[in-house]
Amino acid sequence: MLRFLVRRLLQAIPTLLILSILIFAWLRSLPGGPAGALLGDKATPEKIADLNKLLGLDDPIFVQYFKFLGRAITGDFGNSLVSAQPVMSEIGNFLPATIELGFCAMLIAVGLGIPFGYLSARFRGGAVDNVIIVLSLVGVAVPVFFLGYMMQDALAAPLGLPSQGRQMAGLDATTVTGFAVFDGIITQEWDAAWDAITHLILPAFALATIPLAVIVRITRASVLDVLNEDFIRTANSKGLTQPIVRRRHVLRNGLLPVVTVIGLQTGALLGGAVLTERVFNFRGLGFLLAEGIERRDYPRLQALLLFGALVYVLVNTLVDISYGLIDPRVRVR
Amino acid sequence: MNTLLNKKKEPIDKLAATSAKGHSLGGEAVRRMLRSPVAITGGVITLLFLLLAILAPFIAPKDPYERYLQSEVILGQGIIPGAQAGFPLGVDDFGRDYLSRLLVGAQNTLLVGVLATIIGVVVGMIIGGLAGAFGGWVDTVLMRLVDVMLSVPSLLLAISVAALFQKPSQWTVIVAVSMVGVPIFARLLRGSMLAQRNSDHVLAATSLGVKRGAIVLRHMLPNSLGPVIVQATLTLATAILEAAALSFLGLGDPDPNRAEWGIMLSRSARQFLDIRPELAYYPAIAIIIVALGFTLLGESLREALDPKNRR
Fold first, then answer.
1. SS3 of B280-292
2. Among B222, B205, B193, B177, which residue's Cα sits nearest to residue B127?
């Protein structure tokens, strides 16, 4: 088992290395190069040459790449052009918000997705099944940012929920960890904790729609597959009660593909978060990225994109490993 | 021996044709789809949309680029005239007829989706086809590259490609969105190529002396097309949605003249939701219906082509 774990982790390394080369190449291919981007309108050939020298861009390419890699490994991605802060400290400051939002969204998606998918499969062809299928199909077809605006427009006022930001204006909550709900609880500022929760509800539901719809469909398909398996017939024919068959055989085997999809969707949340956080002014990594795009803040963009890919690769590796834990057959290869 | 050598010049398909005819997977799939309400709904929506896209310039009641009620638009005070005689869906902030823009928008939206999908399919199939046909180190190198592309969440991939271009335009959107499909199609084609390598019909063709290139093109590719078509249909739906997302993030075509649903939606959703929410609703509903249509069609195609469902 340990060998399997180590091998899986080692396999992620070449992927990340190639990715770092691509991002390095991307940085270099930018019009005017980073120096041009940094100087903006003030760029003159002499100034660009000076800055290139300062930034070490006159070194041979492979030297530059290894320097870039060395800095990237230690977490140094330069300073943001918008805030003039180190990009990594920006990411550190905004990360808790996105984790909070993503966690809530996945909680909603998994918490509703698996039961709905299972119901849909159990009552295949019935009215419940049809309604669930239609909703899940529509859920994928709605542009995420439009859904966000719709929620702000139609739900925020009637439900008394805030539609902008992470915190009520003027509420001066103590920051300990950066996780607003958690901070409110440990400092016993219950107002602040409640305020943070209300600010999370709408964006978390908006962000949850796509993973929710996908999880419903995968759960349904997988449960249907399992229901056709021989061992279910065996279990039924040896007289096991329905609840036991369902819990021990159907659900347990039916959830395997769902685990993979949950992993993939967790990674994909980073994409959806860009749209959701922009619409709700929820200041997390997605907001940072959207602002970075608008201002063409390349150091910030490359750090965020590499960071996003890193998280995605790690999540997928974890998923593979957990797959090996659940299903011993996967370990063999 | 002599007869065998002569036989190999004949296309192997002719040999196959001499045997008894069974039910073809394709024919059965069509029959199954005609019975499925999901397939029919998806097919009807898709057909209507295609028809609309083709006929748009002829049925649009007004010129979509002409500014009609310009004097009545006072943006500073948040005034955009609503629906009225001659303008059943109202006008946008430039005073242009919204119905005509929506109709012509069908064409441009389809163009973005179709072109992005085609580029994704072609590039992905070349990569996957080479990897599947050659195997060995070609396979390893290409698949590592595909792994890397897959290791970036789709919207982030599209964003990074779009951010590469200094000036956003319709083409940068198309290229960026198409890159999302490339690794998926590459994986798909490689997988089914590998699966067929040791299959009976490929072995038969090989033992008859058919050349490797001909085997790949004539026997392996056609048998891999089913899943590719299914995936392309589904990609079309996501391509339209992703193009809209790029517009929303400011990476889309900045030309406010362009009548395209994603651009119309993101402009209206950002700027006029308080004044005239309909201006966002119309293109949003259009996008939802089209994405839904392609998704339904793709899902039912997948179901119909799945050999597991054959009876």
1. HHHHHHHHHHHHH
2. B193
Decide: A289 and A276 in contact? Cβ < 8 Å: no
Q: Which of A16, A146, A225, A310 to mutate to test the interface with B (most CBs of B within 10 A)?
A: A146
CB-nearest partner of B164 from A29, A137, A146: A29
Q: Which residues, 6+ apart, have CB-to-CB distance to A154 below 8 Å? A: none
Residue B126, classified by CB atoms within 10 Å of its CB into exposed (0-12), middle (13-18) or buried (19+), is middle
Instruction: Name the residue facing A153 among B244, B277, B296 (closest C-beta).
Output: B277
Partner-chain contact B287 A141, CB within 8 Å: yes
pTM score above 0.90: no
Tens of pLDDT along A206-224? Answer: 999 999 999 999 999 888 8
Looking at residue A247, what DSSP letter applies? Answer: I
- Complex ipTM more than 0.95, yes or no: no
Closest chain B residue to A272, measured at CA: B155
A149-179 residue pLDDT tens: 989 888 888 888 888 888 776 677 777 777 8
HEC string for chain B:
CHHHHHHHHCCHHHHHHHCCCCCCHHHHHHHHHHHCHHHHHHHHHHHHHHHHHHHHHHHCCCCCCCCCCHHHCEHHHCECCCCECCECCCECCCCCEHHHHHHHHHHHHHHHHHHHHHHHHHHHHHHHHHHHHHCHHHHHHHHHHHHHHHCCCHHHHHHHHHHHCCCCCHHHHHHHHHHHHHHHHHHHHHHHHHHHHCCHHHHHHHHCCCCHHHHHHHHHHHHHHHHHHHHHHHHHHHHHHHHHHHHHCCCCCCCCCCCCHHHHHHHHHHHCCCCCCHHHHHHHHHHHHHHHHHHHHHHHHHHHHCHHHCC
Please classify residue B18 by burial: count the beta carbons closer than 10 Å to its beta carbon, then call 0-12 exposed, 13-18 middle and 19+ buried. Answer: exposed
Distance (Å) from the alpha carbon of B299 to chain A's nearest alpha carbon: 10
Q: Take residue B39 and report the two structure tokens written for it.
A: 């397939």
Would an 8 Å CB–CB cutoff place B121 in contact with chain A? no
% of chain B at pLDDT higher than 90? 24
Q: Give Cα separations from A78 to A63, B100, B261 (angstroms).
A: 18, 49, 38
> DSSP 3-state assignment of A136?
helix
Inform me whether the C-beta atom of residue A240 falls under 8 Å from chain B C-beta atoms.
no
Per-residue pLDDT of A40-68, as tens digits, reads: 666 677 777 777 776 666 677 777 778 77
